[in-house]
Write a structure and sequence with these properties.
single chain; 490 residues; alpha/beta; 2 domains; seven-stranded mixed β-sheet; five-stranded mixed β-sheet; elongated
Length: 490
């Protein structure tokens, strides 16, 4: 997606552009996305690389061991800020154990994309576990990745040793600068059983998915450099990239050509090396035969904060606040209408199943959400009860609609007019990272790669083995181990 957006600016003058973009499939993610913002404002793209081989030849080696279905092989959030031309990329390990929509059972995050309303479920899963709003959704599959690499005539990677992955099909038998073709590039990007050679012996990269994420982020930068070297701003090159992916790229239905072109105009001179890339830190913690990764929330919190859109020292605005509107499922239409009213005044609000209806309307907030709760209360008619819940991340709050609910105010009341005792005084840990979402039930995890296919957890019983594995800063077998040689490898 990063490469496709960069190409749109060059192709903008071609009459074929708009018709080509119109042919790109779209998906309705519903109210899960943040209400539309101006193209010149910062936004978060959720970029999903799925393991779907639906458009791959039946005899292709990549289909080995695959029986259909679709899981999120790559989960990245790209935040772009047109105001200063900066971009940052956050990868979420696919085996992260979180509460997954729509039933909010604990499972691998990559399973959220499968089944009915997959894109919407994944967006909701990210919003409610990480407290990050999503503005736009982009999905690519195996074939799209291959097509992009083919248009670029391969992407060069500098290997310091021979490397291989017998599961993905990767095999590089000599060290040096190697231009990966579309097949080897995909094998490289998918490699989770990565091995590199030391003194003639094969060693396994024990970082597994963490190492793969680091290689993927490195590959993105290399692909951008390759595109620039090939004349990315040449209209024919740009249209080649766009044509290559239009059959396998899926966008949300709110992302229009005008928005994309505005973004491109602000990122024409973007340097790939300035892309700030990180991955959510996790630790290996298998359960019931399933190879889960538990998120290290205290270490993850500083990485998540820049994606929540609140600049240091700046006041909180409704756009920064994620609101779960909950109540009795039998009044779903009414609850959805209340969420829409909150959207209209700027919040990122959505009706979420799983609430109950009592007499009192209640706002719950987490360690970083005190001001978010006050801001929401100021936009409500009447005075709600307010409670602290240490499990709520970021500026996410939960609004439980009671029978006393009087509606949403078109204009908020001044914060100083709110009751002085509105918020509790005993919210221990205020301003500190939370411990992640509540375990709301044990569910199934239908991931065929690693672990029990059923993924059913033992209902809170059974041994949990934990081995810490955190973000890798070096990548065995490739640069940056030899930065000077890597710089010459283009």
């Amino acid at each position: 997606m990063v490469l496709v957006v960069a190409c749109l600016g060059s192709a903008a003058a071609l009459s074929k552009l708009r018709s080509t973009i119109d042919e790109v499939p779209v998906v309705d993610v519903g109210s899960s996305l943040t209400p539309t913002v101006e193209a010149t404002e910062p936004r978060n793209f959720l970029i999903i690389g799925t393991d779907s081989a639906a458009r791959i030849d039946p005899d292709d080696e990549i289909r080995k061991g695959r029986e259909g279905g679709e899981l999120a092989d790559v989960i990245m959030i790209l935040r772009v800020d047109p105001r200063d031309g900066t971009a940052r990329l956050l990868s979420i390990p696919r085996d992260s154990r979180v509460a997954v929509a729509p039933d909010w059972r604990m499972a691998r995050i990559n399973t959220a994309i499968s089944g009915v309303n997959g894109p919407r479920n994944l967006v909701q899963t990210i919003k409610r576990n990480f407290g990050i709003s999503i503005d736009n959704f982009v999905k690519v599959d195996f074939q799209a990745f291959r097509d992009l690499v083919e248009v670029l005539d391969g992407v060069a990677v500098y290997f310091t040793t021979p490397v291989r992955d017998r599961e993905s099909g990767l095999y590089i038998d000599e060290a040096g600068c190697v231009t990966l073709d579309e097949r080897q590039a995909l094998a490289y990007a998918r490699a989770r059983h990565y091995e590199y050679q030391v003194d003639g012996r094969w060693r396994t990269d024990i970082s597994s998915d963490h190492g793969r994420i680091a290689r993927q982020q490195d590959f993105i930068k290399r692909a951008l450099r390759r595109a620039s070297d090939k004349g990315l701003r040449n209209p024919s090159t740009a249209m080649g990239v766009i044509d290559a992916v239009r059959g396998s790229l899926v966008l949300d239905d709110t992302l229009d050509v005008g928005t994309l072109l505005t973004l491109v105009s602000e990122f024409q001179s973007f340097n790939p090396d300035s892309l700030d890339s990180q991955q959510v830190p996790t630790e290996y913690a298998p359960r019931g035969g399933v190879a889960y990764e538990e998120i290290i929330w205290s270490a993850a919190e500083p990485m998540l904060e820049p994606f929540r859109g609140v600049e240091p020292g700046a006041p909180l605005s409704p756009r920064n606040v994620i609101v779960d509107v909950r109540g009795r499922d039998s009044i779903e239409d009414e609850l959805a209408a209340h969420a829409a009213s909150l959207d209209e005044v700027g919040f990122d609000a959505e009706f979420v199943r799983g609430g109950s209806l009592g007499y009192d309307t209640v706002i719950r907030y987490g360690p970083n959400g005190r001001e978010a709760a006050r801001l929401l209360a100021a936009h409500l008619e009447g005075t709600p009860e307010v409670e602290f819940d240490e499990e709520l991340p970021g500026y996410r709050v939960v609004l439980s609609i009671g029978s006393d609910f009087a509606g949403v105010r078109a204009e908020p009341r001044p914060l100083e007019e709110l009751p002085a005792d509105l918020l509790p005084d005993d919210d221990a840990g205020e301003g500190e990272a939370g411990e992640g979402p509540v375990d709301e039930g044990e569910g199934q995890d239908p991931d065929p790669d690693g672990g029990d296919p059923s993924g059913e957890e033992p209902g809170g019983t059974g041994e949990v083995t934990t081995t810490t594995t955190t973000t890798t800063t070096t990548i065995p077998g490739i640069a940056p181990a030899d930065s000077e040689a890597a710089a010459r490898c283009r």
